[in-house]
């Protein structure tokens, strides 16, 4: 594990780096249609943990891949994440008024503008992957990245997980069904971060790729378990979104199905399994190990 001060410094460095990349790729607020571009920027550039870009950069660092090669990847994935939050918050979906400590996109602007902002952000992500000159020069790898992002953000990944989530409201589902939902809804995009970063390397072995993917699967689920725990024990000010919103919407969660103590235990088990997946990696992969720990110890 990294020294806590060093870890925090790296997180800050990665956040600043992706913010610069996002600023580069997002359309200027004054460019017509201005209101749409303002909504896009509002949703993307607001304060956030930048978890997914951090994973992209951390994976690149662990594999000695130059960070400029993955700037476009980090920006594209964060933009996909932002689009998903815009749509998740809509009245037809989770009907949330607060995101990252401020009004959700449809509350700050209006529902139609929020929907269009999400649509435009999704398109922008793929534009970045096809145009960023600093990404890998290998066309086949770039096409594979586009394929991965399209697959894992669509009906067989994030969007599919959200559909399962909506269909599960008010129903009694078992722990296996809940895990399946979150493997798609949350875990798929986290796997995307690590897979796309690894594809940017020139000499990443199949063994390394598979080990990193196993790591990604474990932390993708542990992140969601901790999210469910925080919805129970956190507070709105710290979380930046309404505390207890899952219970209010009668959504199945890890604490509601297996109880809070067991959910905490599960998060720790997943953390240990993630560490085991990358045990053969050298010390430069400590950033990934520290991220796994961060996922299960965070308070927001």
What report would you give on this structure?
There is one protein chain. By secondary structure, the protein is mostly helical. It has one domain (4-297): Farnesyl Diphosphate Synthase. The chain is 70% helix and 1% strand. The chain has 15 helices and 2 strands. It has helices at residues 4-25, 34-45, 51-62, 71-88, 105-108, 111-131, 139-153, 158-168, 175-199, 206-233, 236-239, 245-248, 254-258, 260-277, 286-297; strands at 98-99, 102-103. Helix 3 crosses helix 9 (175-199) and helix 10 (206-233) runs antiparallel to helix 14. The two termini are 21 Å apart. The relative contact order is 0.12. The model has no long low-confidence stretch (mean pLDDT 93).
- N to C succession of SSEs: HHHHEEHHHHHHHHHHH
The tally of beta strands, per DSSP, is 2
Main sheet: strands, sense, barrel: 2 strands, antiparallel
| Shape label | globular
N-to-C terminal Cα separation, in Å? Answer: 21 Å
CATH fold descriptor: Farnesyl Diphosphate Synthase
CATH architectural grouping? Orthogonal Bundle
Task: Indicate the mean pLDDT.
Answer: 93
Percent in helix: over 70%
Distinct helical segment count:
15
Feature tags:
Farnesyl Diphosphate Synthase; single chain; 15 helices; two-stranded antiparallel sheet; mainly alpha; 300 residues; globular
């Amino acid at each position: 594990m990294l020294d806590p001060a060093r870890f925090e410094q790296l997180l800050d460095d990665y956040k600043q780096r992706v913010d610069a990349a996002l600023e580069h790729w997002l359309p200027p607020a004054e460019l017509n249609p201005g209101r749409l571009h303002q909504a896009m920027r509002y949703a993307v550039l607001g304060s956030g943990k930048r978890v997914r870009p951090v994973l992209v950069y951390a994976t690149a660092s662990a594999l000695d891949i130059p960070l400029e090669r993955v700037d476009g990847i980090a920006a594209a994935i964060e933009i996909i994440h932002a689009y998903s939050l815009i749509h998740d918050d809509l009245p037809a979906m989770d009907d949330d008024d607060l995101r990252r400590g401020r009004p959700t996109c449809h509350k700050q602007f209006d529902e139609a503008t929020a929907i269009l902002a999400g649509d435009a952000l999704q398109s922008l992500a793929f534009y970045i992957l096809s145009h960023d000159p600093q990404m890998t020069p290998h066309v086949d790898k770039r096409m594979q990245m586009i394929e991965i992002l399209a697959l894992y953000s669509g009906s067989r990944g994030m969007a599919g997980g959200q559909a399962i989530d909506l269909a599960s409201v008010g129903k009694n589902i078992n722990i296996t069904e809940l895990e399946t939902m979150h493997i798609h809804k949350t875990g798929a995009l986290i796997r995307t971060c690590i897979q796309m970063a690894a594809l940017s390397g020139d000499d990443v072995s199949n063994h390394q790729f598979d080990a990193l993917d196993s790591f990604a699967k474990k932390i993708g689920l542990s992140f969601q378990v901790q999210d469910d725990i925080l919805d129970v024990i956190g507070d709105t000010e710290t979380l930046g979104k309404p505390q207890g919103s899952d219970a209010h919407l009668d959504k199945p969660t890890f604490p509601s199905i297996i109880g809070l103590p067991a959910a905490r235990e599960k998060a720790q088990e997943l953390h240990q399994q993630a560490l085991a997946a990358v045990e053969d990696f050298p010390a430069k992969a400590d950033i990934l190990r520290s991220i796994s720990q961060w996922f299960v110890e965070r308070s927001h």
